[in-house]
Amino acid sequence: MHTSQKGLFNRVIKTTDEPMFTVVGILLQFVSTPDQNGGDLSVMRAGLPPQAVIPLHSHNDAEIFYVLEGAMDVYQDDEISSGWQTSSAGEVVTIAKGVKHALRNPNSTLVRMVSVSERQLYCFFRELAEPLDPNAPPSAPTPEAMQKLFEVAARYEYWIGSPSENAAIGINLG
């Protein structure tokens, strides 16, 4: 234990002190970053608005979602089995590295969750994050925001499913 060394203790983070962002329509609040915790993990508070969809995608970073309020549908395809499951408050969803997955909130209420990810996914989200106007409800992503998503995803070598691949699992990208 390193308790005798100075500078190893981080302050307790009050989430009310941290700004909220939107990443292509999803609410994110970065509450513990890799730089803050001296590791490779990020902890975020997240909100999936009513009727919001995170299209089919994959990346080489594991993700963990702990649902605090509401319920969301989670699709996973590990090339052996695939399908949708509903995750409700108090449940944890673990997405392994490289697994194709999608999220959707088919309900009329916001899904609140805690998300844990690795450094690269945190950096990806930070690059896409735009400050959230606390006086306005989150809006659907603009075509410009979606274009930026595709450009940043390509740079990080993340895979994003095509409209037909999303349609095949029941997601209409409009």
Task: Give a short synopsis of this structure.
It contains four helices and twelve strands, in the order E-E-H-E-E-E-E-E-E-E-E-H-E-H-E-H. It is α+β, with helices and mostly antiparallel strands and 174 residues long.
Overview of the structural elements:
Helices cover 19% and strands 38% of the residues. The protein is an alpha+beta fold and 174 residues long. The longest helix is centred in the C-terminal third of the chain and has 13 residues, at 143-155. The radius of gyration is 17 Å and the shape is globular. The termini are far apart.
Q: Characterize the overall form.
A: globular
Rounded Rg? 17 Å
Number of strands: 12
DSSP helix fraction: 10-25%
Compute the number of helices: 4
Compressed to H and E, one letter per element, the order equals EEHEEEEEEEEHEHEH
Structural class: alpha+beta
